[in-house]
Amino acid sequence: MHCPNCGRTETGQVGTHEFFCWNCCLEFHGAPGNWRLFALDPDGLLVEVQPEPAGLGGVPLGVPAAAPAVHAAPEAGPTAAAG
Ligand SMILES: [Zn+2]
Questions:
Q1: How many A from CA of 79 to the centre of ligand 1?
Q2: What is the 66 CA–ligand 1 centroid distance (Å)?
């Protein structure tokens, strides 16, 4: 079992579709390709976290990518070229 967040194998199963990574200290629920990641807060509650795309080992998590803001550049040209 590879951790969907760090790709390492220091994982353990804690439920039917629930796993824990000792390296990340994250719990992940679901199935390959459809993981939800959870962190344990100091009160022992599971808090869902969003994985960082750069940290993924090529594992698609189905995270919706935000569309980049595109600002149309005005046509370049001399504007202050007073003769
Ligand atoms: Zn991990």
A1: 55
A2: 24
Residue 46's nearest CA partner among 13, 9, 18 is 18
User: pLDDT digit string (tens) for 29-71?
Assistant: 999 889 999 998 889 899 999 866 655 554 455 545 555 666 6
pLDDT, mean of residues 6-33 = 93
CB within 8 A of 26, min separation 6: which ones?
3, 5, 20, 37, 38, 39, 49
Residue 20 identity (one-letter amino acid): F
Q: Show Cβ contacts of residue 21 under 8 Å, excluding neighbours closer than 6 positions.
A: 3, 5, 6, 8, 10, 11, 27, 28
Q: Which residues contact 46 (CB under 8 A, 6 or more apart)?
A: 27, 38, 39, 40
